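Aim 2, interim progress. The first record below pairs a target sequence with its structure tokens.
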Amino acid sequence: MTTEELSQQVGPAESKHINSRRYQDVISGDRVTTTHWFIAWAGGLGFMIESMGTAVYALIIPQLLDDFDADLNELTFALFLVGLLSAGATYFWPWLADRIGRRPCFIINIVLCALSLVLVALSWNWLSFIAFYGLYLCAQVGEWGVAACLISETWPARRRASVLSFARSFYGYGAALAGLLGVTLVATIGWRYAFLLPAGVAFLALFVRFFCPESPYWLRARDRRTRLRAAVARGEQVSAEDSAWQRKAEKPGLGQLFLADQRRRTIVAIFVPVVGLMAFTIVGAWQPLYLHNELGWTTSEYSVYTIWWGLAGTLGYYLFGWIADHRSRLSAMFAGNLLCIVTIIPWALSTEPWAIYTFGLLANVGLIGVWGTIMTYTAELFPTRIRGLGQGISWGTAGLISKGVPFLALLISDVTGSFQLAFLLIPVLLIIQLIGLVVAKTEYAGKELDEIAV
């Protein structure tokens, strides 16, 4: 039997799933099923947990400093150190997903998120808070790569950016819920209870994830490698295409990322999230403290602003996800960046509440709204055999570099007496990203993953 004939058969890995109704749903061609929506919701709830945990931390910084008698610089530096560990975890989770599968990695990740959030609420001093919050950070960063892999490998290509943007839009809802927690819990009975709601969402996400099937792309890539290894061991002749694929697949993972036919895509996939995450981290980390310390807003006032800030971001996800699927990935990222650039500058220079709301919410439509497109874009840039690894390298590098950004912004604030100059770095970073996208000219809207790279 030839290798070509073998390639038409279901391999041992896929055969374990082929009779599952939910697996059959995701190999049903262009049809969208209930199972597809389970996958989207499972990823969306994970992104919601991430945003809730991150936004709640930003909201409670003033209370943490009082409760634990901590210094802001010490607290920021400690989080910078654990942030370096979480950047490594950003690489680890997708790497693990390439080895054990998208689905089991998806489930393990959310269990750790839930448990770590409960431990954060039980912290007894600022060191224990940092340790448990650091564990949470190391768990939640897995959502970026693993969720993007599973969603992109199960949904039809024509809706890939829209559905990843839909899932990612839960980040905005999570930020809005965090603002609501700030008004109802943090401002009244303290910060600890605010971490229990995202823990509850994590357990809900765990339930939903049991309805998610394994990625057919991952199973077929695994079976292809198994078949080719067996054929070569038996001394059978394989096609030139299979032989070339096997040579790549047998190389160390990192080496595959920088092969001649992949190198350009890998560089683009690293550059885009690095610059984007640097820009977002500045405002995401320090906006509540800035409103509290420099503009005199109360916990309730900046929490209400955070609610609307998060909801504005969800609008951006839907808008730019639609543009990414109906026009192109590049046009969606261009539109989002330009909107943020022209509104974040007057926001940073404003002191009046109406201007903070108007320009801040518009800026967030662009700043957050493109992240669904960016996650789609990076997932498309890697072949299935190393998609998890590639996503890990992209987002791990972005996380590693961006972890120093809050500390840099704090240093600028200490020197200048305000965060305004730090916020004005955001349009500069977004302009750099736009220039890079123009130079790269890489676009794969609407293409099947195996049409892009195998």
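The second target in this work package is listed in the same format:
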Amino acid sequence: MTTPCVRVSVSEGEPTRAALAERDLLDGDREIAVEDGDIFLPVVDAAAAREAGYEVVNRETAERDGPTPPAELLGFEPSYERLGDIVILDEDHPERARRIADAIVESDVPCEAVVNRASKVAGEYRVREWDVLYGDGTETVHREYGHEFAIDIAEVYFSPRLATERHRVTAQVEADERIVDMFAGVGPFAVPMAARGAAVLACDVNPAAVASLRENAARNGVADAVTVLEGDVRETTADYNGWADRIVMNLPHSADGFLDTAVRLAGDDCVIHLYDITHEDDPFGPGERAVRAVAEPAGYEVEVLTRREVRSYAPHEVNVCLDVRIRRP
């Protein structure tokens, strides 16, 4: 169908769209189009649009039959991820971040807040600063494989990108296992493992994470199966020596420094899930050597069950997981 459209450059697309909408000239039943650096905004009154100073052209447009994506408003495909009802951007330029946030809000993307990463993950609690571009703050509820997690991303570390990896490990858990999650955060390993019938000891040094972990265990009906310890796992777990059938060590960059504690907590037959950030030339060697250096002198045989590259982390660096079984002969 031929429709009158206001033609402007892509860089002027969002302010022009907003201005047309304010004048009730935008035709919401037709699709916005982008071509050769120009954006074409369908209008309901060509004469009124011309009187307002816009160039109007006639062109074929499609009927709008679905949500309007941010790309239609921006003229390019923005990069963002969802966490609950928060949209997360990773933009270095504040003006570009603001444009994307405005387009997300004006589009049909459901959200209560849009935030932009304002710092790298840092500090003992591995948190970052955020610029809140839209909405009230940084709290949300994230749903993952049938479980709900209350999260404040300004207070705790959480990555939705690791959902598949967490599910892979959780699927290995059998009922009645005894599991130590050494760096539990808000509970994305601990809660679903407890839901599978395991008894979970969940540890974290961050008080905010511990509070959310307790809330999330209750929210998902597994509070009785999750014992929560606040503080350094090296100092809080003396009563659990030799207790664990499975141990999760998700603290990349630092987990290998806690292997002596993991071996102390391990029973006679225990699987350790060790996460690390390593160089792509030897992604698994450092972790395997570190496990052997601690476990073998303690009388364990070491068997690597799985070597897995979880994701790219930085140029020439990868986030990896080793599933390692340690067993006394």
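Residues 94-106 form the longest helix (13 residues). This observation will shape the mutagenesis plan for the next reporting period.
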